Amino acid sequence: MAAMISAIDLRKTYGKRQALDGFTLSVDEGTVCGLLGPNGAGKTTAVRILATLLKADSGSASIAGYDVATDAGRVRAAIGFTGQYAAVDEILTGRQNLDMFARLYHLDRRRSRERTDELIDRFGLHDTADRPAGGYSGGTRRRLDLAVSLILAPRVLFLDEPTTGLDPRTRAEVWKDIRQLVSAGTTVLLTTQYLDEADHLADQIAVIDDGAIIAGGTPRELKESVGGDQIELVLRDEEQMESVARILAASTGSEPTVNLDRRRISAPAPDRFRSLDTTMRNLDRAGIDPEDIALRRPTLDDVFLKLTDRKEKAA
């Protein structure tokens, strides 16, 4: 089956700066791909090229089988795009915004009203639909913006940092909306600065740095790539670090990692709870009472930091 989103060796230069340097990506239909990377890594440039808003210097890309360079019209008919900030008219009501955009998409008056009602119902906008959008909360504005991007029921939806600035409760509501879209068959390319967001939503993750993909896989695969469970301690007294490092090395059979600034020390724990139990017993015998001790699994934060740190050191 052909990929719904495909990019091969995309390159883009702004003056002397290489924004994309061989960017290659493939996303299957009905899945969410999280595109992660530090600021300036090339995320927005890649999305703008895939959405036909920008031309690549070289390479090729397609959406739903249509070439973004030679079939831009068909690509635009197949996609929806939601940027970092809600692009709605603050003077118009939510209902008027939806109706206006539907008419701009050349729906006739009857179909425009039908689609507006469908989207108001789908995104739970009944209570605010007839109020000016300028008075909406950030979460309601974002949901209206998502509704606008779905007027033509796109096969592919680009979400560029869709929950920036939203509180945790509202972010969770937007996540629910996105999952519903995917369950209905929409393919989503998501760029985000929130790694927990990618962990919750993405079927696959691609990490981009300096304009190229440096790692990819499912969230679980990426987390397993940086190691298994770890015992992590935070100490009350910095002078205990050396003693605790010896105890942790003996309990786990692994070389600990020490962060003096945070009084934090950690080591891989292949036996999980047995290693944790042995560590706690040995600390107790030594009369050491840590501020915190935990057995934790790697997170996408660990993946992101390790990958980008490795790349900086290689440079």
From TrEMBL:
SMART domains, per database record: AAA
Keyword field contains Chloroplast: no
Organism in which the protein naturally occurs: Actinoalloteichus hymeniacidonis
Keywords, in A-Z order: Antibiotic resistance, ATP-binding, Cell membrane, Hydrolase, Membrane, Nucleotide-binding, Translocase, Transport
Pfam families: ABC_tran (PF00005)
Membrane topology: Peripheral membrane protein
ABC transporter domain residues: 5-235
Name of the molecule in the record: Daunorubicin resistance ABC transporter ATP-binding subunit
GO molecular function, one term: ATP hydrolysis activity
Cellular component terms (Gene Ontology): plasma membrane
Location within or outside the cell: Cell membrane
Principal location class: membrane
Protein origin, superkingdom: Bacteria
Family per similarity comment: Belongs to the ABC transporter superfamily. Drug exporter-1 (DrugE1) (TC 3.A.1.105) family.
EC number(s) stated in the UniProt entry for this protein: 3.6.3.-
Biological process (GO), any one: response to antibiotic
Family matches, as InterPro entries: AAA+_ATPase, ABC_transporter-like_ATP-bd, ABC_transporter_ATP-binding, DrrA, P-loop_NTPase
